[in-house]
Amino acid sequence: PCPSLIQDDLLKMTHRENWKVQHERLHVKHRGHEAMHAEMVLILIATLVVAQIVLVQWKQRHHRSYNLVTLVQMWVVPLYFTIKLYWWRFLSMWGMFSVVTSYVIFRATRKPLSCRTPRMVYKWFLLIYKLSYAVGVLGYLAIMFTMFGFNVFFRIKAEDSMDVGVIMLFYGLYYGVMGRDFAEICSDYMASTIGYYNQGGMPTRSLTNDICAVCGQKILVDVEEEGFIEDTYQLSCGHIFHEFCIRGWCIVGKKQTCPYCNEKVDLKRMMNNPWEKTHVLYGQLLDWLRYLVAWQPIIIGIVHGINFTLGLE
């Protein structure tokens, strides 16, 4: 038959029918290549195993460089696919997030550090964290809503409700990862600048009982003094901080040690109610997603390169 007629028939088909035709053509194209496919699967599995070992060793031996390279890839890889696939909605949100976050990072890395900068930084990343958590949960619920068929009662197409759910889930998880990674970098810079924290050794300043090591301000202020009046929190090591500061340090900034003495922090003990304990699980999910978004496309690209070199098309 004429190719133009075939093209016209495809255009007249529904999306599902079109997908079935394309799927059948794919099966016909690859029929009889079972041995080659088995070899390609083995290459994929071997590459994934080797890449996982290399990444784990890199993370353990050079944690900071691993996090920095991963963060750059998290920032750039989705941008490449966004421009390639014309996802302008994601690009606009990515641009707004990048502009505001760049300003926050600029403020966090200035010396001398303004007394109000740590609080401003943690407020921004805490907002991103909460928004990403809420959007991700709504996206997950929309997916479950569609899978159980509730969309029929509201006369919503399954494709539409599933698309909304997947997009919201991706937005929530992606910006959750980005926010926490940038917050960790800002936490290191600010705490090191203030002087009560040093990731690789002893702090440059000695901490007194009336100072919060995260923001460098007095924990309790007099009536006529300028400062922050809020609840305090004491870690198991005995050091006291503003509750907002230490929660920003641990939950948003991904730190699990005391900002001064580096003693291990029990995050579950910091959660006041059962609902807050889900944040620990959410944080672990975000850490896993970082590997999926940042490194998976590169690993798949390496696999394609190996297959091309060996002539496995």
From TrEMBL:
Principal location listed in the UniProt entry: membrane
Residue ranges of every copy of the RING-type domain listed in the record: 212-262
A GO molecular-function annotation: ubiquitin protein ligase activity
PROSITE patterns in the cross-refs: ZF_RING_2 (PS50089)
One of the GO BP terms on file: ERAD pathway
Superkingdom as given in the UniProt entry: Eukaryota
Positions of transmembrane segments: 40-58, 65-81, 87-106, 127-154
GO CC annotations, alphabetized: endoplasmic reticulum membrane; Golgi membrane
UniProt keyword terms in alphabetical order: Membrane, Metal-binding, Transmembrane, Transmembrane helix, Zinc, Zinc-finger
Topological type in the membrane: Multi-pass membrane protein
Location(s) in or outside the cell: Membrane
Protein name: Ring finger protein 175
